[in-house]
Amino acid sequence: MHSISAGLPEAETVVLLHGFPESSYAWRHQIDSLVAAGYRVVVPDQRGYSLTGKTPPYDLATLFGDIVGLIDTLACDRVHLAGHVGISPFFRLTSLERSWGRRRAACCKQYLRP
Fold it and tell me: Please, is 33 exposed, middle or buried when counting C-beta atoms within 10 Å of its C-beta (0-12, 13-18, 19+)?
């Protein structure tokens, strides 16, 4: 899974999840501000988007598993999750009781083509 990472590895981690039909590029304006605030930021391109492989299936359970796997590989005690409202595993992640879950936020924005 392709992802953008910024900030120090030992900093608290924020994972930003895009919605449909976006990619990690949707979070480009937030990354520098979060790093400046002292966070490590990880922004994946979810399955089927941008530089991540376009290998089916694309169901929510599979997308959810991809993100859980990514978070588990980050080797951090806690993560902050932020996600765009839409077809995204974000809402399923927010209900998951995992040791790394700390804070969750949902964002809603209009998708505009560049």
Answer: exposed
